[in-house]
Write a structure and sequence with these properties.
It catalyses: (8S)-8-amino-7-oxononanoate + S-adenosyl-L-methionine = S-adenosyl-4-methylsulfanyl-2-oxobutanoate + (7R,8S)-7,8-diammoniononanoate. With 438 residues, this protein is of the alpha/beta class. Helix content is 37%, strand content 16%. It binds pyridoxal-5'-phosphate.
């Protein structure tokens, strides 16, 4: 950027407020967005010059902080040679190298890769594959999905229909959304003992309706935007067995959890299972550019390819964008070359210890941590904006939603910034609850 260029931020923000939609917002937006001008590592520089510690990793994505030099270098090299080329009939090394890494690293059996540009679309492709699999086997009645409550799989029409029916958009679009089956969410926390009752509701739906069900979709171990809930690995293991027993495919959505966030490279590893279809997104390029992927077993690709019409009818314009593939390769290499397990343990230990004092604070319903994720669940759902503002005053960027104040910092966040982050979170919660007489 031209250093002598000083934008008029009042005018920019006013234009933004009047003309540009932000996620889940009104337009014009009564809440003015905060201008940002620069990122580096775990620091975000705001338009007014303030430097704040990032607690969100841009919604799970920025695994190694912003502007990682190795990822940037890979992108610079690619942008100078071939930023984009169509994938219809053509191919390139970045896509092939990335596919190899995904096949090698992901749970066993997932050896076919479909590249798309966002997480929601990766789920759309997963759903399309599952339904087309059963059409190819001449069992077209198996075209419904089964999922658990409190899930989140995206904002497109197919994915909205499998988001939580209460906190999702079912009310608004009930006439338009496909009707699927919902089982109760897993109730037992990550380290709670196994309990067969937990999965009984899901099992009984499978018993009654397996002839109509193409696949179960689930976020392994961590339910993200649908409630930030952690559940026990044995639930996943039992789910895998039930899917096999009732001839239903298993779609694991690792768009948020993939690449280490829970302490395993993929959250499925906690249960030692492989899904039939796996989606990746958010974390794939370490927050540098958009890219997502749908992985599947050869059984799925062969069945679809041997069926009628014999092709998978999907092909985004920017499919396997080489610039994004290069960023993803560099992101994965940076991850594997780093002591990421130690880093996640370090963040887990720190968040577990520092957030614990909130457990006894009036108005706090629950505090939970897993991997490099810390969650504070409040009793009230109307304090998020105030807590966000209070945290910002303390130099910390948080983006609460509803009752949930949460953080998932970059794995390599310096210890001092991690301490500032947790202190900012704790203080902003205590302060806001006190001011609101709780
Ligand atoms: C964010 C998210 C999605 C949707 O990804 P987008 O890139 O926002 O479309 C789907 N599933 C899960 C688990 C997510 O966290």
């Amino acid at each position: 950027m031209n250093p002598s260029h000083t934008p008029n931020w009042n005018a920019l923000l006013e234009y933004d407020r009047e003309h540009i939609w932000h996620p889940y917002a009104k337009l014009p937006n009564p809440i003015e967005a905060i201008g940002v001008i620069r990122t580096q590592g775990s620091i975000i520089t705001l338009a007014d010059g303030r430097e704040v510690v990032d607690g969100m990793s841009s919604w799970w994505a920025a695994l190694h902080g912003y502007n990682h030099p190795k990822i940037q270098q890979a992108m610079h090299e690619q942008i100078d040679t071939m930023p984009h080329i169509m994938f219809g009939g053509l191919t390139h090394e970045p896509a092939i190298e990335l596919a190899k890494r995904l096949v090698d690293l992901s749970p066993t059996g997932l050896d076919k890769v479909f590249f798309v540009d966002s997480g929601s679309v990766a789920m759309e492709v997963a759903i399309k594959m599952a339904i087309q699999y059963w059409i190819s086997l001449t069992r077209p009645a198996k075209n419904k999905l089964l999922t658990v409550r409190n899930g989140y799989h995206g904002d497109t029409f197919a994915t909205m229909a499998i988001c939580d029916p209460i906190n999702g958009m079912h009310h608004l679009f009930s006439d338009v959304l496909s009707k699927h089956f919902f089982a109760p969410a897993p109730q037992m926390g990550f380290s709670e003992p196994s309990d067969n009752q937990d999965i009984a509701g899901l099992k009984s739906i499978l018993e009654q309706h397996h002839n109509e069900i193409a696949a179960v979709t689930i976020e392994p171990i961590v339910q993200g935007a649908g409630g930030m809930r952690f559940y026990r690995p044995n639930y996943l293991k039992q789910l895998r067995e039930l899917c096999d027993e009732f001839e239903v495919l298993l779609i694991a959505d690792e768009i948020a959890t993939g690449f280490g966030r829970t302490g395993k490279l993929f959250a499925c590893e906690w249960a030692g299972i492989s899904p039939d279809i796996l989606t990746l997104g958010k974390t794939l390029t370490g927050g540098h550019i958009t890219l997502a992927a749908t992985l599947a077993t050869s059984r799925i690709s062969e069945t679809i390819s041997n069926g009628n019409p014999g092709i998978l009818a999907h092909g985004p314009t920017y499919m396997a964008n080489p610039l994004a593939c290069r960023a993803a390769i560099a992101n994965i290499d940076v991850l594997l070359d780093s002591p990421w397990q130690d880093n996640i343990q370090r963040i887990y230990d720190h968040l577990t210890e520092s957030l614990a004092e909130l457990k006894k604070v009036n108005g706090v319903a629950d505090v939970r941590t897993l991997g490099a994720i810390g969650v504070v669940e409040l009793e009230r759902d109307d304090l998020g904006a105030k807590i966000q503002a209070a945290a910002l005053e303390q130099g910390v960027w948080l983006r609460p939603f509803g009752k949930l104040i949460y953080t998932m910092p970059a794995y390599n966040i310096p210890q001092r910034q991690l301490e500032q982050l947790s202190a900012g979170l704790v203080n902003s919660v205590i302060q806001t609850l006190a001011q609101n007489n709780l």
